[in-house]
Write a structure and sequence with these properties.
The structure holds two protein chains of two kinds. Chain A is mainly α. Chain A has one domain. Helices cover about 70% and strands about 0% of the residues of chain A. In chain A, α1 runs antiparallel to α7, α3 runs antiparallel to α4 and α3 packs across α7. The N terminus of chain A is likely disordered. Chain B has one domain. Classes of the chains: A mainly alpha, B mainly alpha.
Chain lengths: ~260, ~220
């Protein structure tokens, strides 16, 4: 049995506890730094979103990158392993969360700066398309089918992902561009050191959060798969044990017993 | 590979020729979409002419979903997929053949829809070369991507609902690029339109390569 390879109780370990604490400390620092940033003339309080919004987007792309890399490693025969498939699945789920958070924080930021919740800007549109693509990928992974068949299919989808991102990027970029330049360039030119520091602490904190979530989700998927594998065998053994041992049977309902009167 | 592709394409087109599903169901559906757009957007306000390019390509996109679904529905019954797998045909050839058959049907639909856009919406054709090139290149991309996603969803219990969810976001750049190119060709655009054709070509190449490389393992697992 694969018992040794899988955490038997829960999904946490020393590694995840350290990662989790570091991520928590990082996020607290990010918020502290972000909230202590000075107001800017054009964006007032909202410029403080720079501490989290670019970091969320960066992690979303990182997660999608992990999806396609793991998918590729799964498809190549020499490196094929269930673990890559599980890693891709875990990363794709976290990517969906971070893409959605990117859209939400971007929307909150866009309202005061652009005057609208949603603008058909290149990068917004790209993020929205990617979220849709990612949801499609996750839907494919949820389909009831043989594990092997499902894994190959989702891996092919994962491998196409980077090409899709590149084409989408050019398509929406030529279509329209309203977004300010990449926050990084923007920050370097216009904003002071505090903004840069807050942004980079944000990058680090959310990347740690991603790593922490990824390990937990990955182990959970391992456990789920083991449950599927062993669940049937365990259930069968239990039923057999019930039939052969003379354990007390469930009480017969008296009203159904022979001769019972209403 | 090319011979196998021609065989599969010939088979699929013969099936369509005899069953007439494309001509009797998909083509009327495409025209119906154009008519529904006219109901939704008042024809008197000139919105239809301005939006003609986009509406045309949305109609093509929806029809391509039906064509792809059909392309794999014919393999689903009577163990046809097992036959295909056991036939010894090159998987890359099967992919190219199925994509070619879908592309031929889509091109026929595009001609029909093009006439529809001119007649029903009163659009003017300014750049015939750009129109035709856009159609050709994006049809290759639509057919290749459609068949890749078609085989991804093939054989699953939820394929009818899964296919649009997988396909439509992936085809978003085609809709974007083809619409911009057509806007120029219909005299509504702002740029020359040709850079969009290049982008469509890149898209087509990506999915043709993905299909040629990936169809074998996908067909095995389908």
């Amino acid at each position: 049995m694969a018992r040794a390879a899988v955490a038997t109780r829960g999904t946490s370990s020393k590694l995840t506890r350290v990662l989790g604490l570091l991520a928590l400390a990082g996020i607290v620092t990010t918020f502290a730094l972000g909230l202590s940033l000075p107001r800017t003339v054009e964006q007032h309080e909202y410029s403080r979103l720079i501490a989290i919004h670019p970091a969320l987007a960066e992690v979303a792309y990182l997660a999608l990158g992990v999806v396609s890399l793991a998918s590729l490693l799964y498809l190549v025969r020499r490196t094929r392993s269930r673990l890559w498939d599980l890693l891709a699945g875990a990363s794709a789920e976290i990517a969906a969360v971070f893409l959605a958070l990117t859209l939400v924080t971007g929307s909150i930021w866009g309202r005061p700066t652009w005057g609208v919740w949603w603008a058909w800007d290149a990068r917004l549109t790209l993020t929205a398309i990617l979220l849709a693509v990612d949801l499609g990928y996750l839907a494919l992974r949820r389909v009831p089918a043989e594990i092997e068949a499902r894994s190959v299919r989702s891996a092919v989808l994962g491998v196409i992902l980077p090409a899709l991102i590149i084409v989408d990027h050019f398509a929406v970029d030529w279509w329209r561009s309203l977004h300010q330049d990449s926050s990084l360039e923007d920050a370097k030119d216009n904003l002071g050191t505090p903004f840069l520091v807050a942004m980079f602490v944000g990058f680090a904190a959310f990347t740690l959060l991603y790593a922490w979530l990824l390990v937990h989700r990955f182990r959970l998927e391992q456990l789920e798969e083991r449950l599927e594998d062993e669940g049937l065998a365990v259930a069968l053994a239990e039923r057999q044990a019930e039939a052969t041992t003379d354990r007390p049977r469930p009480p017969v309902r008296p009203e159904l017993a022979e001769g019972a009167r209403p | 590979m090319w011979r196998d592709a021609a065989l599969v394409a010939g088979k699929d087109l013969r099936i369509e020729g005899r069953s007439r599903v494309t001509t009797n169901q998909v083509a009327p559906f495409a025209i119906l979409v154009l008519v529904l757009f006219a109901f939704a957007l008042d024809p008197d306000r000139g919105v239809l002419v301005k939006a003609a390019a986009g509406l045309f390509w949305i109609a093509v996109l929806f029809s391509s979903l039906l064509a792809v679904q059909r392309s794999f529905a014919v393999e689903a019954t009577d163990g046809a997929r097992d036959g295909l797998r056991l036939s010894g045909l090159d998987p890359a050839g099967i992919f190219l053949g199925k994509a070619a058959a879908v592309a031929v049907q889509l091109l026929a639909l595009e001609v029909l829809l093009g006439v529809g856009v001119v007649v029903l919406y009163g659009a003017d054709l300014h750049g015939p070369l750009l129109l035709v090139m856009t159609c050709l290149v994006s049809t290759v991309g639509l057919a290749a991507a459609g068949v890749v996603y078609g085989v991804l969803a093939a054989g699953l219990k939820v394929r009818e609902t899964l296919l649009p969810l997988l396909t439509l976001p992936a085809l978003a750049p085609v809709l974007l690029a083809a619409t911009r190119a057509w806007e120029t060709a219909l005299g509504q655009g702002v740029d020359s339109g040709w850079k969009w054709v290049q982008l469509l070509a890149v898209f087509a190449v990506i999915y043709v390569v993905a299909g040629v490389l990936g169809f074998g393992p996908l067909l095995e697992e389908a």
